[in-house]
Design goal:
By secondary structure, the chain is mainly alpha-helical. It has helices at about 1-15, 30-55, 60-80, 90-130, 140-145, 155-170, 170-180, 195-210; strands at about 25, 185. It folds into two domains: about 1-30 and about 85-210, no CATH class; about 30-80, no CATH class.
Length: about 210
């Protein structure tokens, strides 16, 4: 959870800054195992499609098919709530950032309130001392300059502004962009990815598939 919060805070802090030009991104290459699993999934879908076509007039089959399709829709809905920008983890992380923002505002307002009350008391005392004899010599600028000041206000305001920017930057679009970026692999400026045993194996399999 803390890791999720940290990632989301980094998203907000980055904002819309342009990506460094010293790097470019490339989708990670699929391993033979991943390709095999995709092939199996494709075959299963084709088999299901053929079965539907062959049994489309069987009422018992259609009952089961309808239930299966209903469950598939339910699963898709559950998946949207457990993964992606609107996942529970992201929603909790965003909520924690919002709580930090609210607490920062509370600290700021409490300090502002205390400072305002102290300054009001000072001015009331100053006004009580004004008489008909001294009013002609009264200089408001001089009195205001002597008003007590709260040295913590600037720091509290800066903290509130920082958290406010973080909270405002936590949009689903920004979160999704960060998640998409995490799915790609960085390579150097030449665009040549360093070969590893895994990438070499993939290249060999691809060459065999292409008849090279």
């Amino acid at each position: 959870m803390l890791e999720t919060v940290g990632k989301l805070q980094n998203i907000a802090q980055r904002g819309n800054k342009p990506k460094p030009k010293t790097k470019r991104l490339q989708m990670a290459r699929k391993t033979p195992a991943e390709k095999f699993e995709e092939a199996k999934l494709h075959m299963a879908k084709m088999a299901a499609k053929m079965a539907r076509e062959e049994n489309k007039d069987n009422p018992e089959y259609l009952v089961l098919l309808e239930k299966s399709e209903s469950l598939a829709k339910d699963i898709a809905g559950y998946s949207r709530k457990t993964t992606g920008p609107n996942s529970f983890a992201n929603r909790v992380a965003v909520a924690r950032i919002k709580i930090d923002w609210i607490e920062a505002e509370e600290r700021l307002v409490i300090s502002q309130d205390a400072s305002a009350k102290e300054q009001k008391k000072f001015l009331q005392n100053a006004l009580a001392k004004v008489t008909t004899e001294t009013v002609a010599k009264l200089k408001s600028a001089t009195v205001l300059k002597k008003m007590p000041k709260n040295d913590d206000l600037a720091e509290l305001q800066a903290e509130y502004d920082r958290l406010n920017d973080q909270w405002r930057g936590m949009t689903p679009k920004a979160i999704k962009a960060a998640e998409d970026a995490a799915k790609v692999t960085e390579i150097d400026t030449t665009g040549i990815e360093q070969e590893t045993p895994e990438t070499a194996e993939v290249a060999e399999v691809e060459s065999l598939e292409n008849g090279e």
